[in-house]
Amino acid sequence: MAYLLDTNVFIQARDVHYGFNLCPGFWNWIDDAHARGIVLSVKEIRDELLRREDDLSKWCKTRKSLFEDSSDSNTYESLKLLTTWVCDNYAPAYQAEFLGCADFPLIGYAHAHGHIVVTNEVYADGHKVKIPKACRAMAVTSITPYEMLINEGVRFVLENKGAPDGS
Q1: Under a CB-based contact definition with an 8 Å cutoff, are residues 35 and 2 in contact?
Q2: Among 94, 126, 134, 137, which residue's Cβ finds the most Cβ atoms within 10 Å?
Q3: pTM to 2 decimals?
Q4: How many domains does the structure of the chain reveal?
Q5: Predicted pLDDT at 47
Q6: Residue of 109, 97, 88 lying closest to 45 (CA atoms)
């Protein structure tokens, strides 16, 4: 079992919670957790991130191994099941949107390989296919990045620089 990170995990971490200069420990933990085989994503997520052409895309360029190829036969079988569920439950425009984005192979790969999807999306009924709802339909666990960090016992500890008054 590994945690598969959605595009929005990387983007929100960089833009909101764990900027590269603010909390380098988050990014170091991603590298360490990947080296231990517990964090990864799929190449379609990497493709989305590379299109940003920013410091996050530069970070991704040097971490190609973090992003798995999702074109294996087991994932293909899972994608067929996921396609059927999407087509049975959503209008054609929403089907096309979902089947053409990185969420589709992310969930298929998680299903095929017994991984957990990590996303900032929340479960919601509606017209658009949301990751947590698709995961539930496929019996794939989806959690938030905070849940992943808590599950793994991650702590980002501020270095002791002395008292606030400089003493």
Answers
A1: no
A2: 134
A3: 0.92
A4: 1
A5: 97
A6: 109
